[in-house]
Amino acid sequence: MTKMNKLKYVGLSLLFFGVANAQDAEGAKKAIDAEKYQKAKSILKSLIKENPDEGKNYFLLGDVYLKQEEKDSAAMYFNKGKGVKKDEEYNLIGLAHIKLNEGNTAAADTQLKAVEDELRRRDVEQLVYIGRAYIESDNANYKKAISFLNKAIEKDDEYAKAYLALGDAYVGDENYSEAYKAYRNAFRLDSSLLRAKLQLGVITKNTRAAFPEAVSAFENILSADPNYGPAYRELAETYYLWANTDTSKYDQYINKALDYYKKYMELTDYSLNSRMRYADFLVLARDYKALEEEAKKMQELDEVNPRILRYLSYSAYENGNYEASMKAMNEFMSKVEDDRLIARDYLYLGLAKLASTISTDAEGNSIVSDEEMFNGAIEDIKKAAEMDIEITNEFNAIGKKLFGQRLYGPASIVFEVAAENPDNRNAFYDNFYLAYSVYYDHVNKSEEDRAENIERLKVADKALDRVIELSPDAQDAFLFKARINQFMKSEEAYAEMAKAYDEYIRIVTEAGAESVEENKKKLIEAYENAGAYYQVLDKEKAKEYFTQALELDPENEYAKQQLEGLE
């Protein structure tokens, strides 16, 4: 089960300073819960202007900026709010949240404990926000959050939002049974709290075995409120996970996922932050045409935000513009701190470099046009795998795309890195395609370059051993093992070639006449090459093989000549 979505949610109380303002505060509360952050900011700025002495409004506005990862703006409002007449302590919680994000845990703990010590008997909401600070921090401490939230419930065991936050804390702590209970209690106490019901569906979704039930849960929420945007986002993510689990329906489910995410966007706001969330989803859904369009729209909104360059790089690569992909990613990496770089950034940089360094000569052979860049590409791809070994589970599709473009050398590098993952879900195919790619890369080399390529052939041979280990009757694994060893041109390799052809012949012929007919051409190859090897070591076996070749192809002059020589 995955941890809860990084999006941060917060429940707000009514603000009591007149009927008109109370209604505006309720609007801000609903806007934040529905993830309409631009609308919420507009309402809260208006409230601050009307009543500059209410500290909670500064906190709520700063907290919205924190959700959007705009720390400086958040700090500005928290600092303004900590000096006003009423409810200034909320802003001390906000400033402590920033300290937690920065890793200054001791100072944050001290500040939050000081806020707690000053609370009155009926002050419950502040404890909830302290708990949320620990939940939503970049350096989360879920057990401390649980402790503070239990204190809030001790003060008021009917405060629904305390149970909602407690559920979030238990999800972060991977205690899903307690999280489920907390969310259920929150909704029981306040049936208008759709966020609690949503999170019950999220827990169901993340079991990866109950997608229909999760879909039903989210649809049930929308039957109560068709405009509740987060439910559409969760439907999108559910269908995305379902598509990757039931690959026979991938296109059907991924299209549903994209449609639901578009609906979510329509119901939230089209700010840069929401567009970036959408862009992240388009990366997951592999809709790179839409991603490129979205990245260009984001550039129109903000030309200086470096994260947009990431999306431009990803989409440019997938849409075949490798130079533009490299340019965008190099610019992105030069503008952000190292800790903001992720494995996928290095992956795309490496792939763009690979695709840019391979060309063909006059005879159509694959050649490396820039050895230094090629080596750099390999290092980038390896770094991606080192940063996140799970990303290698995506290498199969990437490698197959390169293979389909006849970029066999680059494809072999991608499959090789993937094959090194001990928990690789595509181990059989990645090892086979590693060998397959090396073989065709070798075939397309000049004679001079082939002589320098023996080590890569050994890598391919080892990969095929792994394929055979996983599937002892994988006939094509034996066929390519024979071909690869033939290219190695050593006595030991020729012996391995013959053994591999023997196994290929056995598997195909034991499968029956239909299998023989289907693989006729390859069988003749096996009989001829293995027969040639056995001419010296085992003449009877050589005769048998050349005879079998003639049965399949009575006009085979080579087999006739070899049989005559063995008489």
Features:
567 residues; mainly alpha; Serine Threonine Protein Phosphatase 5, Tetratricopeptide repeat; two-stranded antiparallel sheet; 74% helix; elongated; disordered N terminus
Structural class: mainly alpha
Helical content class: over 70%
Query: Count the helices. How many?
Result: 31
Poorly predicted sequence stretches spanning 5 or more consecutive residues: 1-23
CATH topology group of the domain at 1-173? Serine Threonine Protein Phosphatase 5, Tetratricopeptide repeat
Strand order of the largest sheet: 1-2
Number of strands: 2
CATH-level-2 architecture of the domain at 1-173: Alpha Horseshoe
Q: How large, in whole angstroms, is the Cα Rg?
A: 31 Å
Largest sheet: 2 strands, antiparallel
SSE topology:
Layout: H1 19-33, H2 37-50, H3 55-67, H4 71-81, H5 89-101, H6 105-117, H7 125-136, H8 142-155, H9 160-172, H10 176-189, H11 194-205, H12 211-224, H13 229-245, H14 250-267, H15 272-285, H16 288-301, H17 307-318, H18 322-335, H19 343-357, E1 358-360, E2 366-368, H20 371-387, H21 395-404, H22 408-419, H23 427-443, H24 447-451, H25 454-470, H26 475-488, H27 491-510, H28 513-518, H29 520-537, H30 539-552, H31 557-566
Antiparallel strand pairs: 1-2
Helix pairs in contact: 1-2, 2-3, 3-4, 3-5, 4-5, 5-6, 5-7, 7-8, 7-9, 8-9, 9-10, 9-11, 10-11, 11-12, 11-13, 12-13, 13-14, 14-15, 15-16, 15-17, 16-17, 17-18, 17-19, 18-19, 19-20, 20-22, 21-22, 21-23, 22-23, 23-25, 23-26, 25-26, 26-27, 27-29, 29-30, 30-31
